[in-house]
Amino acid sequence: MGPTAMIALLWLGFAITHMALSSVTFRPRLVGVLGDRGFQGVYSLIALAFFVPLVWVYFDHKHAGPLLWAIPVGGTLRWAIHIGMGLSFVLLIAGVMNASPASMTATDTDASAQPSGVHFITRHAVFMATAVFGLLHLIPNGFATDVAFFSGFPIFALVGSIHQDRRKIETEPERYKAFHESTPLLPFTGRQTLRGLKELSKLAVGIGVGVTVLVRYFHSSWFS
């Protein structure tokens, strides 16, 4: 099996196990046997069992296979990618600091919480941060293994977000419905995006920008 197919299969396994274990069919049964913390531990281990080999295979076969596209990256486009990565890190940090009621680990109290800050930009900030990361890295990386690896991030983010929404609506309709209706799935598509930007944690923005600068500075030595 070639590396491109292996990367695609590992993404598929990661996605299937990730969503199946958290589904309304399997999660309650597993929580009943393992408890909340036990379930989260097993869930995380299974996710790592797919994601670690996924990253390993890709880094062993970067820029391999047919070249599907070659987009020159310089000047304006390079700066646009840097700014986009800054946005990705800000969304990630803000999403961790202001956890969404849509997340798998949200409690019943979280599900009825009022949206604030980053939730008005997207209710799935962590997922959408990974989607932006993947999309931006697709621009300069057009070989088959690159496309298989980086396209998995936005695809999984979108499918995973929709899966979480459906599960929450089914299991917690009264608590989650209001939050779902007042927040957008895709970033910057909601009616209160400006409010979300104004309410973003300054600490999250500062950390996100700092991480962006740090990663950009060491990118060649860490990832080349």
List the helices and strands and how they pair.
Elements lengths: L2 H19 L5 H34 L15 H22 L10 H4 L13 H14 L5 H28 L1 H9 L11 H7 L2 H22 L1
Notes on the structure:
It is built from nine helices and no strands. The chain has 224 residues and is mostly helical. It folds into two domains: 1-61; 67-223, no CATH class. It has helices spanning 3-21, 27-60, 76-97, 108-111, 125-138, 144-171, 173-181, 193-199, 202-223. 71% of the residues lie in helices and 0% in strands.
Largest sheet: none
User: Rg from C-alpha positions?
Assistant: 18 Å
- How many separate domains make up the residues? 2
Query: Which ranges are low-confidence, i.e. pLDDT below 50, for 5 or more consecutive residues?
Result: none
Order of helices and strands: HHHHHHHHH
Fraction of helical residues: over 70%
Can I get a quick summary?
The protein is mainly α and 224 residues long.
Q: Which descriptors apply to this entry?
A:
224 residues; mainly alpha; 2 domains; 9 helices
